[in-house]
Amino acid sequence: MKKKIFLVVFIILIYSLNFAAAPPKPPKAASKAKTIKPAPPVVTQHAVKVKGKMLKYEAAAGCLEMKDEAGKQQALIFYVAYTKTGGDKTKRPVTFTFNGGPGSSSVWLHMGGLGPKRVNMSEDGLTFRPPYGYSDNEFTWLEFTDLVFIDPVSTGYSRPAPGVAKKKFHGVKEDAASVGDFIRLYVTKNKRWLSPKFICGESYGTTRAAGLSGYLQERYGMYIKGIVLVSAVLNFQNSRFAPGNDIPCALFLPTYTATAYYHKKLAPKYQKDLKATLKEVEEWAMNDYLLALAKGDTLVGKERDKIIDKLSQYTGLSKEYIDNSDLRIWARRFFSQLLRSEKHVVGRLDSRFKTEVRDAAGEFYEFDPSMSAIDGPFAAVINHYIREDLGCENDIPYEWISSLWSWNWGDARRGYVNVAETLRSAMARNPYLKVMVACGYYDVATPYFGAVYTFKHLGLPPSLTKNFVFTYYESGHMMYINKPSLKKLHDDALDFYRDALK
């Protein structure tokens, strides 16, 4: 009996000790915030000297809260808006502008070409010396239009709302919709529905701009007065090298020639006049070269040798290399081969840039020297400028450029992205829509002849072909880093706006 009592007491004691030692249940975690309340935009007053006169303007920097129709927060989209002081806002144009990537903030157009401040650089734009800085941009487009620089979701300070998936914004159609919704909301909040509205996009931003031309019309009945496409890419078949797709080989050729011209790799007769040389190359590319590529493996003997000879003359590459490349000079090969004997590669965004490589034996292309040259200066300046000049403080990183590898390319799964048809439809519906296409001769990312080819295949009636104009610059993808091209871009845009507003 005593043993049984002892055993019961022992079990109760052990149970009590275990119960006492058991850790208390953790408190329920606080539920994650479902929204982020954005601070109101910071508004500051400024002035910039343009053509000898002081232009007063207001800057607003902050985030717009984007909600769905049920009122649920979807994203915070960061922007910087510049509005000229005084005047009738219903008659003053407003331009919504952005860069490309996809994944780029608007820093390049903002601090390089269009905004009232500009990163300090050399006259030709090839040199950026530390310490980096910025100064007044005498060629700001604020002279003739108010400006709204937009950072799409995942760039700049723009972010999805908590719990909202990034994929809702990362795609051809998704991106155009989110930026279009931002434009609608900005126009509404700032009472700009009667203002003439323009869009300016660069690189993938031109893809976005073409998509917006249709989205804004169809979704909100918002008709755009004009679109400026800087370094355009609308039909990606024209710029994607792949077996069986020979079109880029012909469309990149004039840019190869321009690059060889700049680095003095052409025969003397082709070094005299760049524009005359390019005209000859364009005609040959669209006739003899395209026909030769179309013949494929049946192009042999003297006929093949003749094409190789011309390609060598127009590119500065050896006949042997062209023959080994099967007459198809992909851009990545060209970067590495043009200055191979000097152990240099040329830039993709701007082929005027070059840098030495450790390995010149093959097709080694470690980085784009034209991109690496501008990354540091622009990143430093935008981070300082937003906080110090605009008074907008934010401790999250300003994503000046992001790698959005999970981008939804939509129709590209069945071929190539092509928003040229969207632009054609928008121009057909709105016959007053004008388009300016700005092209850099040394842009090997979105070559100028590819844009020309795209617009020649829009399928517009002759009455509407007068609605678009091409302008050219002896610079690269970001032609405005070259000061003469910066001025020319400003003057060309001023003429374009005047024409569109007639």
Present the secondary structure layout:
Blueprint: H1 2-21, E1 42-50, E2 53-67, E3 73-84, E4 94-98, H2 107-114, E5 117-119, E6 134-136, E7 146-150, E8 159-160, H3 172-189, E9 197-203, H4 204-220, E10 226-232, H5 247-262, H6 274-295, H7 301-315, H8 319-324, H9 331-337, E11 344-346, E12 354-356, H10 369-388, H11 420-429, E13 434-440, H12 448-456, H13 462-465, E14 468-473, H14 483-500
Helix pairs in contact: 2-10, 3-4, 4-11, 5-6, 5-12, 6-7
Series of secondary-structure elements, N-terminal to C-terminal: HEEEEHEEEEHEHEHHHHHEEHHEHHEH
What is the CATH topology classification name of the largest domain?
Answer: Rossmann fold
Give the radius of gyration: 28 Å
Q: What about the largest sheet?
A: 10 strands, mixed
Total of domains: 2
Strand percent estimate: 15-25%
In which range does the helix fraction lie?
A: 25-40%
For this structure, what is the CATH homologous superfamily of the largest domain?
A: Alpha/Beta hydrolase fold, catalytic domain
List the total number of helices. 14
Number of strands: 14
Q: What top-tier CATH class of the largest domain fits best?
A: Alpha Beta
Structural class: alpha/beta
Low-pLDDT runs of 5+ residues are: 1-23
Name the average pLDDT: 92
Would you identify the CATH architecture of the largest domain? 3-Layer(aba) Sandwich
